[in-house]
Design goal:
heterodimer, A: 234 residues, mainly alpha, 11 helices, 51% helix, B: 573 residues, alpha+beta, seven-stranded antiparallel β-sheet
Chain lengths: 234, 573
């Protein structure tokens, strides 16, 4: 390893603590593997590792259903740019959007597996072209510039899927992961519902509820909630 | 391969087919209903789950497995539409519909005559193929009344025998009596819409909906949950054919429902008469039902496809198509939409039955003067959540942020988190005219999971008169939104040339075989024992939702078959 590689390694380790800590996946070993791939000549995709279970950021760990570690972390980073978290405002990572998408791709959306594989490759190629690194390792503002290019359809690294199709699909799936019932793997602890004030699978509203100009106060109900309300009025 | 025999075979048991199945079976005829989807019940819908039913469309045909394609014009390749209106189970679209249950206006049945009389024949776009219906509102009134009572509609009359009633729709055609149930509770969005519309001198009212506002015929009343449009009702309050007419059919002991049955051909004999249908069973087997009467009760896509697929030497262009009208004169409701937000209050529009809650009829049909407007006909204008369904996935998909706010990122997050509980959408559902070149045929490039060519829509609504109507309505939406006291009102993104909703036409009824496919009973002119029912038969479409009209026509057809055709098979007209 030369001097350049040492600097690179230090940077990547920092990234792993910064960007990576949010993703909970860009572990130093992997970052090194990536660095070796890039600088050792032959770039090879990092094989998917078994599920990590030690993340301090629950709900963001890759359970390995479909996406490999890199893909998972990239999806998580992309989703976080679409719905970024802030203090008191849950974002895509806190809600577990990447976990939702991984689960969906292994099941209901299995016909979109290749769409994701190709799209994520093109995303990294486009990121490299614009900012010299894979999407996951860019600064948030650089990532935003890449997302903006995709949304505008100005991302020549994409052929299939088209950049806008990839952006639109990621946006749709991110919103699904934010706001679908937690049984699907996202909306962790109703994070998405709390963000917008949706109380979930309420089975009954009164006329007073419906005419109120105040926020609705009853606790959110999910499909797995033990608490049941009556099905019927009167 | 199995062969079964019946007096009547019905393809698709939804709004039209389900009613006819029940009425004919109760009249003592042996009926077989073929349904490509499953048989479900209220118990099937205990998961109040937006992802499953709204987003992933579980009650609708799968857009990839059962594609319907669309193209704006003949020079481009058609691609599958993202969402179909129809249902994919016994009960059809009534299982998931928003329940809007309108009687069409008197002039909805005579667009060409009404327009010519009031504005001159030249005010009808030259290329439009609009014809009057072969029946009038008065002919259908008793059947509208029957449908309102049998499926259970809640609402307030606005015109009983010519007497106008404040608080109801004063533009509605005269009815013999009030709705069987009072309107549903008003919600915050309905209230502010009502206040705003009244300020503008308009006439708002609670939309009539096939939802029990009180216990009705053994069914529970609505609990005002969020999960209505796109969902099966978890208490059975929604007046679907699944919980109203199919149980009647089954209780008659004359009705056999076969689910998972994909009909691929209407069989005809060498004389050209229909002999029954061929279908693929749930196990992949090929089967035949032989019947004296064949009724196509699927949605217009499959009805038209079956007519075209069933061609023979005797019917070389498909069944019912001797004058070349099968698949033509297609129409769709095109939507304009405005969004309004409120900084001084929560609206909480996720509560209550979701679709088109309060309505104004002032700019619909010929209820307003079209002189010098450059278009005829109008739109139903209602207040709704973003996409008729009310959950946050729907809002994230359809509530386009105001100009200047992006669709993603921190600013978008803050917009959605602030206004999801503080917005209302105002929708215009525009009536669009039929044109001969708006059509359905068989897609040569796309096949469905059964290997059949997909129904293909060819259609671009952006004609001058249609665009003017939409632009007029957009202005009305903005005015209403401001009158509602909104902090901000803006137009939702319109999707240019998009296929729209509530497709109608393709096997239209008429008084003359030369310009129509069926008579007013849905009986094909070419083959008297082959009927087509449902919205495919509508010659013009109204700005109102079509379901109650589909149902009223089905009661009328069933009565004619049971009392007249059965005794004396042959043309009913």
């Amino acid at each position: 390893m030369g001097e350049h590689d040492e600097a690179r390694r230090a940077f990547l380790l920092k990234s792993a603590v910064g960007v990576g800590a949010m993703a909970g996946t860009a572990l130093p070993g992997e970052a090194l593997a990536r660095a070796r791939g890039r600088h050792g000549g032959e770039a090879k995709a990092v094989e998917s590792a078994p599920a990590k279970t030690t993340s301090a950021h629950g709900g963001t760990e890759n359970r390995g259903l479909f996406l490999n570690e890199d893909e998972f972390a990239t999806v998580a980073a992309f989703a976080e740019r679409l719905m970024p978290g802030a203090p008191g405002k849950a974002g895509a990572k806190e809600a577990g959007v990447a976990n939702y998408i991984d689960q969906a791709l292994a099941g209901a959306y299995s016909d979109q597996q290749e769409f994701y594989r190709h799209g994520l490759k093109a995303l990294d190629a486009q990121s490299n072209e614009l900012h010299g690194d894979a999407f996951l390792y860019l600064k948030p503002e650089q990532q935003d510039a890449v997302v903006t290019a995709l949304e505008a359809g100005k991302a020549p690294a994409f052929s299939w899927p088209a950049a806008q199709a990839f952006f639109n699909t990621l946006r749709t799936h991110t919103m699904e992961g934010m706001f679908s019932d937690p049984v699907y793997g996202g909306n962790r602890d109703f994070a998405g519902w709390k963000l917008v004030g949706f109380p979930g699978a309420q089975r009954l509203y009164t006329q007073a509820d419906m005419l109120s100009t105040e926020p609705f106060k009853r606790a959110a109900i999910g499909l797995q909630s033990v608490e049941k309300t009556s099905n019927r009025r009167g | 391969m199995a062969t079964q025999k019946a007096d009547v075979v019905i393809v698709g048991v939804g709004a039209a087919g389900g009613i006819i199945a029940a009425e004919l079976a109760k009249a003592g005829m042996k009926v077989i209903g073929l349904e490509r989807g499953p048989k479900l019940s209220t118990a099937s819908f205990q998961s109040l789950d937006e992802l499953r039913y709204f987003q992933r469309q579980e009650t609708r045909p799968h857009p990839k497995k059962q594609p319907v394609t669309w193209r704006a014009n003949a020079s481009v390749r058609a691609t599958p539409i993202a969402q179909q209106n129809n249902g994919n189970q016994a009960g059809g679209g009534t299982v998931h519909y928003g329940t809007l249950s309108w009687r069409f206006h008197e002039d909805d049945f005579r667009v060409r005559s009404q327009t010519s009389e009031r504005y001159g024949a030249k005010s009808i776009p030259e290329e439009s193929s609009a014809i009057d219906w072969p029946i009038s509102y008065a002919d259908l009134e008793p059947y509208y009344d029957q449908a309102e009572r049998e499926v259970g509609v809640s609402g307030k009359a606005g015109n009983i025998k010519g007497q106008k009633i404040e608080g109801g729709n004063i533009f509605e055609a005269p009815r013999d009596r009030d709705y069987p149930m009072p309107p549903l509770f008003v919600d915050q969005a309905g209230r502010i819409f009502e206040e705003g519309a009244k300020k503008l001198g308009l006439h708002p009212f609670a939309s009539p909906r096939a939802i029990a506002s009180e216990p009705y015929k053994g069914r529970a009343a609505c609990t005002y949950c969020t999960f209505c449009q796109s969902f099966g009702c978890f208490v059975g309050a929604k007046g679907s054919i699944m919980v109203t007419k199919l149980p009647e059919a089954e209780a008659s002991n004359n009705f056999t429902l076969i689910t998972g049955a994909m009909v691929n051909k209407v069989n005809t004999d060498t004389a050209g008469k229909a002999t029954g249908v061929t279908y693929w069973g749930i196990d992949g087997s090929e089967n035949v039902v032989e019947a004296d009467i064949v009724i196509l009760g699927a949605f217009i896509y499959d009805n038209i496809r079956l007519l075209l697929l069933s061609k023979t030497a005797k019917h070389p262009d498909g069944l019912g198509n001797s004058t070349g009208h099968v698949g033509k004169h297609l129409m769709a409701h095109i939507g304009a939409r405005a969004f309004s937000i409120y900084d001084d209050r929560h609206v909480n529009i996720f509560m209550g039955p979701s679709a088109q809650r309060h309505t104004i009829d002032d700019f619909n049909a010929d209820n307003f003067d079209h002189k010098d407007l450059g278009f005829i006909r109008g739109a139903q204008i209602s207040v709704s959540p973003a996409d008729l369904a009310a959950g946050p996935i729907g809002a994230a998909g359809s509530l386009t942020p105001p100009p200047g706010t992006p669709r993603w990122g921190a600013a978008y997050r803050d917009f959605l988190s602030t206004y999801y509980t503080r917005f209302a959408a105002i929708n215009a559902q525009t009536e669009n005219l039929p044109y001969a070149d708006q059509m359905i045929d068989l897609d040569p490039n796309v096949r469905d999971m059964y290997g059949l060519p997909a129904p293909r829509l060819t259609y671009d609504w952006r004609r001058p008169a249609e665009s003017k109507r939409l632009a007029f309505m957009q202005q009305k939406l903005l005015e209403i939104g401001k009158a509602m006291g909104a902090s901000k009102v803006w137009l939702g993104a319109s999707s240019p040339g998009s296929p729209g909703a509530h497709h109608q036409g393709g096997a239209r009824m008429g008084s003359d075989p030369r310009d129509s496919v069926v008579n007013s009973f849905g009986q094909t002119w070419d083959i008297p024992n082959l009927f087509v029912v449902g919205s495919a038969t509508h010659p013009t479409m109204s700005g109102f939702n079509p379901t109650l009209t589909i149902e009223a026509l089905a009661f009328r057809t069933a009565e004619a078959i049971a009392t007249r055709y059965r005794k004396s098979p042959g043309p009913l007209v």
